[in-house]
């Protein structure tokens, strides 16, 4: 095991001490893929056969220890028959248990990240020494599963039930100090002293100064709690976890149930309980959706990083238009290290923008996520101005004025005359064609869209819209800036609504059609929230603003009249005419008042039912299942069209755009993965069931071909 090309190396030190070093070749990080696990099996077997062995040091050859299992192998593995998956878990558990059962002390030196399976192998060692900058944790529940290589067995026996449930169910990373506090770590040292400290501890254990057998013993036995104590501990934990996780994410609660079931068993029997429980959650659609989401996110990061090769450096940015949106963009840029000019034609608008940025930075300080010094530095990075005086130095200018094509064209043309030739202009439009706006510019190749979602500081997505004449360099520069601002950029080709709003409005069209058919909007809201959306469609429209929604709907209807043109006045029109604009004026589908913290508090307004009566031109006795289908089908079908029309390149970009842009329920994995989960043929048959509802419910010819060929979107 000393070959430099191997992932695992056994290095003989002195006095019978062997270092087991993990260093996966051709990879920036260590992960437990098939290769690494096979070599770890061989290495542990060699250690077992070494009669002169006196101690083992487990270490990493990377900047991080082990970041976990190879998630790219998960989906294929989860599709295996139960017995195959069970035997796979048993095989890994046997490796870790054999390491734990060596007749000599074992110490692990944890540098960087030790997560998931990388942390579970650490738990199988007798002692854990952490670098002060290390982080450890079991994040599996974020993937719809829970630890399956001994984490639910060893951790409770090390740090108790309450701490273990918190660590496993929440799936968070923990600092070295936090690990020391609960008893996961035996020592925390400066990174440069890690190896020396771990070896020192190992030698102390070899000499008998430290009793490694006593440290190991609790991990091999049942939990030291009576039946009554177990019941009290686990039942109270289950209640809390069930409430926090909600009904759509079964893994956190299942992890607690597995820990409870295994509490009275010794290690090997407890590991069997864990393995059987792991299969149960691994086979859920939630697990496949969340693992798929993780892989999609990695794909977006890869594409974003690749695009940066063409990007021009951005040392200073500018935003045109202050107010809430401009202030949010300025905050995001300055807080992530890019100084920004914030221009408006009115002093009061500049003050509003600065107030918004200061409010967000203050909240960050209050939550302990920034120091007052960092807040002051970020604020100093925002320079308000009423003129273009300093725009000659800016690298990217983001236009964020009113959503009116003539106004935007005028502002963009004016700005173009004030900046250097290589400056990139970007419009934060949500619906207006980038190619149309570019017609006002002398250098349209230096122009593209940069659509932020509101509120800017919370929403992770930025649509980077490619116009007909946008250059690759302009797109790459804006992608790089979005990434620097800690956003996830998705490059989108120009069309009405771009990606996210184009897909959203058929969903809202399905909603207004339901209301037209006599369905109570509150019922629809409750059903869609139960389905997993953060808010129902009526509530969402109130948050967006009824006037904004009417404008966007009209743009979409003009762009796609065959399916997005409504047959008559809708609930939106009724509210707009009654000047019920949503949260912005306290009246929409619901009424709003300010709570103690000044946030809008929703309440039912009975007068809305009367107001909507004239637009209810039909009556249908739809079931709850019907309503969900009538809402989701138009959205999913438009997502299919966006992929087929080449608005984005991949299914991953469609799905991540919806999850990051409008809060599509992550446990469903996105619109296209949702179709895959149902089965493409089943989805087409479902759409045909509602064909009488109009063009929004018509599958495309290509989708029918995909269904007939038995193809899925993710393969």
Automatic annotation (TrEMBL):
Reaction(s) catalysed (UniProt annotation): a (3S)-3-hydroxyacyl-CoA + NAD(+) = a 3-oxoacyl-CoA + NADH + H(+)
Matches recorded under Pfam families: 3HCDH (PF00725), 3HCDH_N (PF02737), ECH_1 (PF00378)
Gene Ontology process terms (BP): fatty acid beta-oxidation
GO cellular component: fatty acid beta-oxidation multienzyme complex
Keywords annotated in UniProt: Fatty acid metabolism, Isomerase, Lipid degradation, Lipid metabolism, Lyase, Multifunctional enzyme, NAD, Oxidoreductase
EC category: lyase
Biochemical pathway: Lipid metabolism; fatty acid beta-oxidation
InterPro entries, per database record: 3-OHacyl-CoA_DH_CS, 3-OHacyl-CoA_DH_NAD-bd, 3HC_DH_C, 6-PGluconate_DH-like_C_sf, ClpP/crotonase-like_dom_sf, Enoyl-CoA_hydra/iso, FA_oxidation_alpha_subunit, FadB
Stretches assigned to the 3-hydroxyacyl-CoA dehydrogenase NAD binding domain: 317-495
Alphabetized Gene3D superfamilies for the sequence: 1.10.1040.50, 2-enoyl-CoA Hydratase, Chain A, domain 1, NAD(P)-binding Rossmann-like Domain
Domain 3-hydroxyacyl-CoA dehydrogenase C-terminal: 497-592
Keyword Lipid biosynthesis: no
UniProt key word Lyase: yes
UniProt cross-references to CDD domains, sorted A to Z: crotonase-like
GO molecular function term, any single one: delta(3)-delta(2)-enoyl-CoA isomerase activity
EC number(s) per entry: 4.2.1.17
Family in the record: In the N-terminal section; belongs to the enoyl-CoA hydratase/isomerase family.
NCBIfam families, per the entry: FadB, PRK11730.1
Protein name, UniProt field: enoyl-CoA hydratase
Organism: Azomonas agilis
């Amino acid at each position: 095991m000393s070959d430099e090309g191997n992932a695992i190396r056994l290095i003989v030190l002195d006095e019978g001490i062997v270092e087991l070093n993990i260093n996966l070749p051709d990879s920036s990080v260590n992960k437990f893929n098939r290769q690494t696990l096979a070599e770890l099996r061989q290495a542990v077997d060699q250690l077992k056969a070494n009669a002169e062995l006196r101690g083992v040091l487990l270490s990493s050859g990377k900047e991080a220890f082990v970041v976990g299992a190879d998630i790219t192998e998960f989906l294929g593995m989860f599709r295996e028959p139960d017995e195959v998956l069970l035997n796979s878990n048993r095989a890994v558990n046997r490796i870790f248990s054999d390491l734990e059962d060596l007749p000599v002390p074992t110490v692990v030196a944890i540098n960087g990240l030790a997560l998931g399976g990388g942390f579970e192998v650490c738990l199988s060692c007798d002692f854990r020494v952490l670098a002060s900058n290390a982080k450890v944790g079991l994040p599996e529940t974020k993937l719809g599963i829970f630890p399956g290589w001994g984490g639910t067995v060893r951790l409770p026996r090390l740090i108790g039930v309450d701490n273990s449930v918190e660590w496993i169910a929440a799936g968070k990373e923990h600092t070295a100090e936090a690990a020391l506090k609960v008893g996961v770590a035996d020592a925390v040292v400066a990174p440069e002293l890690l190896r020396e400290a771990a070896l020192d501890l190992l030698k102390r254990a070899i000499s008998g100064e430290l009793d490694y057998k006593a440290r190991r013993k609790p991990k091999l036995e049942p939990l030291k709690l009576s039946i009554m104590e177990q019941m009290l501990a686990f039942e109270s934990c289950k209640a809390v976890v069930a409430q926090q996780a909600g009904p759509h994410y079964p893994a956190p609660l299942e992890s607690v149930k597995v820990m409870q079931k295994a509490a009275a068993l010794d290690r090997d029997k407890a590991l069997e309980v864990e393995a059987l429980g792991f299969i149960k959650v691994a086979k859920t659609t939630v697990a496949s959706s969340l693992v798929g989401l993780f892989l999609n996110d990695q794909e977006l990061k890869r594409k974003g990083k690749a695009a940066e090769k063409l990007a021009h450096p951005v040392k200073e940015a500018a935003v045109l238009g202050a107010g809430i949106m401009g202030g949010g963009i300025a905050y995001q840029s300055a807080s992530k290290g890019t100084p920004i000019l914030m221009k408006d034609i009115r002093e009061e608008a500049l003050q509003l923008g600065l107030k918004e940025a200061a409010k967000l930075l203050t909240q960050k300080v209050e939550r302990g996520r920034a120091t007052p010094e960092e807040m002051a530095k970020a604020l100093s990075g925002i320079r308000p101005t009423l003129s273009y005086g300093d725009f000659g130095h800016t690298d990217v200018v983001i236009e964020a004025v009113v959503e009116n094509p003539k106004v935007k064209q005028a502002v963009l043309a004016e700005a173009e005359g004030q900046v250097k030739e290589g400056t990139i202009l970007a419009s934060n439009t949500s619906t207006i064609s980038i190619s149309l706006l570019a017609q006002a510019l002398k250098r349209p190749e230096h122009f593209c869209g940069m659509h932020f979602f509101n509120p800017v500081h919370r929403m992770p997505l930025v649509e980077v819209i490619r116009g007909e004449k946008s250059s690759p360099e302009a797109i790459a520069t804006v992608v790089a800036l979005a990434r620097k601002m800690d956003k996830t950029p998705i490059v989108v080709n120009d069309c009405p609504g771009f990606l996210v709003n184009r897909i959203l409005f058929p969903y809202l069209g399905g909603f207004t059609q339901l209301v037209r058919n006599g369905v109570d909007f509150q019922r629809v809201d409750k059903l869609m929230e139960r389905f997993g959306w953060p808010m129902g469609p009526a509530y969402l429209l109130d948050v967006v603003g009824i006037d904004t929604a009417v404008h966007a709907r009209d743009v979409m209807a003009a762009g796609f009249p065959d399916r997005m043109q409504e047959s008559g006045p809708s609930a939106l029109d009724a509210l707009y005419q009654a000047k019920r604009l949503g949260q912005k004026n306290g009246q929409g589908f619901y009424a709003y008042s300010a709570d103690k913290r000044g946030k809008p508090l929703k309440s039912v307004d009975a007068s809305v039912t009367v107001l909507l009566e004239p637009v209810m031109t039909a009556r249908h006795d739809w079931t709850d299942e019907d309503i969900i289908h009538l809402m989701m089908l138009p959205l999913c079908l438009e997502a299919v069209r966006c992929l087929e029309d080449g608005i984005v390149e991949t299914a991953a970009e469609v799905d991540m755009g919806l999850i990051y842009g409008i809060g599509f329920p992550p446990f469903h994995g996105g619109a296209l993965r949702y179709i895959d989960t149902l089965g493409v043929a089943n989805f087409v048959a479902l759409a045909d069931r509602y064909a009488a509802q109009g063009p929004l419910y018509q599958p495309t010819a290509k989708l029918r071909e995909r269904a007939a060929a038995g193809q899925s979107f993710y393969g």
